[in-house]
Design goal:
This protein is α/β, with parallel strands linked by helices. The chain has 13 helices and 14 strands. The strands form 4 sheets. Strands 2-8-7-6-5-3-4 form a 7-stranded mixed beta sheet, sandwiched between helices. A 3-stranded antiparallel beta sheet has the order 10-14-13, with no helix packed on it. It has a two-stranded parallel sheet with strand order 1-12. α3 packs parallel to α10 and α11 packs parallel to α13.
Amino acid sequence: MLTSPLAPYLHWAKTRPAPAFDLAGSNLLACTLDDLPGAREAVELTAADQGGYPPLVEAIASHYGVEPGRVATASGCSAANFLAIGALIGPGDTVLMEGPWYDQITGACRLLGARVETFERRFEEGYRIDVGALRARITAGTKLVIITSPHNPSGMATDRDTLVALQAMAEEADVHVLVDEVYLDVTNMLHDPPSRERPLAFPRAAGRYTPAALVGDRLLSISSLTKSYGLSGLRCGWVIASPAVAERARRVRDVIDNIGAAPADRLSALAFTHLDPLAARAYNLVSANLEVMRAFFARHPRLELAGPIEATIAFPRLHGVADADPFVARLFAEHGVAVVAGRFFGAPAHIRLSLGGRTDTLVAGLARMDRMLEG
């Protein structure tokens, strides 16, 4: 029997009081039906399912440039993580999880009976992954290594050379590496702005940061339409893996929710046909917010970043503060601004800020943070 939340951050996110200025959420500003032409006409209450809604599976496969057999669909990124974890581990297995961490993933591992150990991604090293040190932590009981790229909560992305090293490590140690890449599309948009020759919704293999599953068959890519496209309401997530692992993930889904909701699957498939304008919307919003956030950090050197902001989240460390909780509580109580306390990610001296919401909300919230920091 569960006596406490498996994912304390997610429990807090769902039950916290509503702030006047919310800088704590991590989703991109939600789309409306008007942002998705043809959405109303596309909704029906039934859809074929053959291990996933075929048009949606094919659209995801095309986005990555892989065969449809390497795609397993899920009800959002969190569900995709759960399917992949369920496909690869069992009770008593050891999972190596990065720290700072995203607790939905650690909670899923514990629910499935795994032993979760952490390896450190250090602020002073830009949260890069030391593959050699990671390899030294793998034992005979280790079945799965889990990272996020861009890293949640810091937003730092993992480069291709590191992914290649992780693939070699996984082959040698006989493990798999799950990479939650839910922020990766927007990161590639920020590094490769739109042009006539290079549309925003280019296949993911073409971006600055390569999806993990395209580097090697021991690596899995997990993502969704939420963080980079503002379509959280569709709950469209997926696993990209080797055909064998993708098939195991589909079998896990058989006993979770079996199939997706027909209206959501149909609208998600439609969204892939409009990915360029959806990506343009995301790019315009996030790039504007990024300029606002850069100016804010330039004014406040006490808020220390591990590197350039590369995603829709930032994770500053409060210089000279061991626990940011009092700052977070006072910011909410006195100024109506919500940010996420770093303790939820195992880094109590930090706070996490969102760049994915409305620009006017970000400007107003940061102005109130200005006053508090100056005081």
